């Protein structure tokens, strides 16, 4: 159903049960209530994370060339229901709203490897540190791997943890930094592994980042322990904008570092594609459960107390200005004829200043005594969390469908001149083409009707030959699958 672009159980009402059943080797396909019940039964075992890890290990073993660089990014799944879910920042909408957060791992081509549900309010940096053992189990104990992420994961302390765990780091610099001089840039051409060519304006220099929580002393060893030294590669755009990139990889050229960092957008492209075709953000389960009411969350009263301090400071500045104005007025009056060079400063200005000083002191005291965090039960006692097990299962199904489509797209590309641009569109058409299923001897023949254009039929026919050459057996039988396109010359 996911390959047919009907990735939710409710879509079973829009498909003929007998047609889908034939593909599954059944008399008829299950109904919506059966699919939902089966998903609930699977979710009740609580092994969604184990399934994701197993899929990740399978991906790493079947495509070892694609997991040398792993792209990590957080994805916010917006919730628009009535439950009191934790709020988080939704970057693509530029607002804060109710949502659940997930951390996705993708390979060097942007295909999803695994996903985990992030803890509420956790930053990407915290999730990176938590994921390191899972990533090591995924790729194996000795495999070199570079972890690539955006500024959301920026933390020199986490960089040290990543490098100590045997991984390499590739990310953007975050914070104030000194721009590179124009004469330090050079134009470099680069041929990417996928055959594309790129031209970059790059500059490079080392940078020492302080690591919080470590104190430097006069000894050189202690100084080295308090900082982490990385390569700072600066990419200059045609409009003059400079983008700083950090890495500890010294074996890669600067243009390859720039290329690998820019390839992070492949993961964003997957999110966009999956939202449109694989119901990435769909609410597959309406079940929820209570949040951990003991976890600490920001205290709203602390923000209000800080606002009070800010307002009191503004009032004090205004009171000082009023006193200055009162003194100026008194000086002007003293210079008037008949005043004898004397005048009285308006006492109200001084009283206002004294009151403003008192208010600021009281606001500072209140802010200092207000805790910055409180248990969730005191802030939002009715906070809930959506059930995640079923979502992990449906993610696994849709990720597998997408990765299967990616594998077919790679096979299709040599046979289709527009494979890079239209390969997935052609596959979407192929998945919905009518056809015949016929058993002859020990072979199950899958004969598709021609596609919408001869060039598409030719490409599909070539793909069918490649698939037939694998001699794949239909699961649970001794039948070998053979694929073809009807009436195509040279194809049975």
When the domains are counted, the total is 3
Helix percentage: 40-55%
Q: Got a strand count? A: 17
How would you sum up the major sheet? 10 strands, mixed
Q: What is the residue-averaged pLDDT?
A: 90
Distance between the termini: 28 Å
**CATH homologous superfamily of the largest domain?**
Transposase Inhibitor Protein From Tn5, Chain A, domain 1
What is the CATH class of the largest domain? Answer: Alpha Beta
Strand fraction band? 15-25%
Pick out the low-confidence regions.
Answer: 214-224
Shape: elongated
- Oligomeric state of the chains present here: single chain
CATH architecture of the largest domain: Alpha-Beta Complex
Radius of gyration: 31 Å
Number of alpha- plus pi-helical segments: 14
Stated plainly, the CATH topology of the largest domain is called: Transposase Inhibitor Protein From Tn5, Chain A, domain 1
Structural class by sheet pairing and helices: alpha+beta
């Amino acid at each position: 159903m996911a390959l047919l672009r009907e990735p939710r159980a409710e879509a079973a009402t829009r498909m003929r049960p007998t047609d889908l059943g034939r593909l599954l080797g059944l008399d008829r396909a299950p109904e919506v209530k059966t699919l939902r019940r089966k998903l609930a039964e699977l979710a009740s075992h609580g092994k969604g994370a184990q399934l994701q890890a197993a899929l990740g290990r399978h991906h790493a073993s079947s495509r070892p060339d694609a997991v040398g660089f792993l792209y990590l990014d957080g994805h916010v799944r917006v919730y628009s229901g009535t439950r009191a879910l934790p709020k988080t920042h939704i970057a693509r909408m530029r607002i804060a709203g109710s949502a659940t957060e997930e951390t996705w791992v993708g390979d060097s081509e942007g295909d999803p490897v695994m996903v985990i549900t992030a803890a509420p309010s956790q930053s990407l940096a915290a999730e990176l540190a938590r994921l390191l053992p899972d990533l090591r189990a995924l790729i194996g104990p000795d495999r070199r791997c570079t972890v690539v992420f955006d500024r959301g994961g920026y933390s020199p302390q986490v960089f040290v943890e990543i490098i100590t765990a045997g991984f390499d780091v590739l990310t953007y610099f975050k914070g104030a930094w000194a721009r590179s001089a124009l004469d330090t840039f050079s134009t470099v051409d680069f041929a990417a592994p996928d055959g594309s060519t790129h031209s970059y304006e790059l500059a490079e220099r080392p940078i020492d980042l302080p690591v919080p929580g470590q104190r430097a002393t006069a000894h050189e060893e202690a100084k080295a322990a308090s900082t982490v030294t990385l390569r700072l590669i600066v990419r200059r755009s045609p409009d003059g904008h400079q983008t700083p990139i950090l890495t500890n990889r010294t074996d890669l050229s600067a243009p390859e570092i720039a290329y690998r960092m820019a390839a992070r957008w492949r993961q964003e492209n997957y999110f966009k594609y999956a939202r449109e075709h694989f119901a990435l953000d769909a609410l597959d389960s309406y079940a929820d459960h209570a949040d951990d009411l003991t976890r600490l969350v920001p205290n709203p009263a602390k923000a209000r107390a800080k606002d009070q301090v800010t307002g009191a400071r503004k009032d004090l500045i205004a009171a000082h200005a009023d006193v200055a104005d009162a003194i100026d007025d008194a000086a002007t009056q003293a210079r008037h004829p008949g005043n004898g060079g004397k005048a009285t400063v308006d006492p109200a200005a001084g009283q206002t200043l004294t009151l403003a000083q008192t208010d600021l002191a009281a606001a500072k005291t209140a802010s200092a005594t207000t805790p910055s965090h409180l248990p969730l039960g005191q802030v939002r006692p009715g906070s809930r969390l959506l059930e995640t097990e079923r979502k992990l299962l449906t993610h696994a199904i849709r990720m597998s469908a997408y990765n299967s489509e990616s594998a077919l797209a790679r096979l299709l590309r040599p046979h289709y001149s527009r494979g890079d641009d239209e390969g997935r569109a052609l596959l979407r058409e192929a998945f919905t083409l009518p056809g015949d299923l016929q058993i002859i001897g020990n072979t199950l023949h899958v004969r598709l009707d021609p596609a919408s254009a001869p060039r598409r039929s030719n490409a599909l026919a070539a793909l069918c030959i490649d698939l037939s050459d694998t001699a794949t057996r239909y699961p649970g039988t001794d039948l070998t699958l053979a694929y073809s396109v009807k009436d195509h010359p040279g194809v049975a």
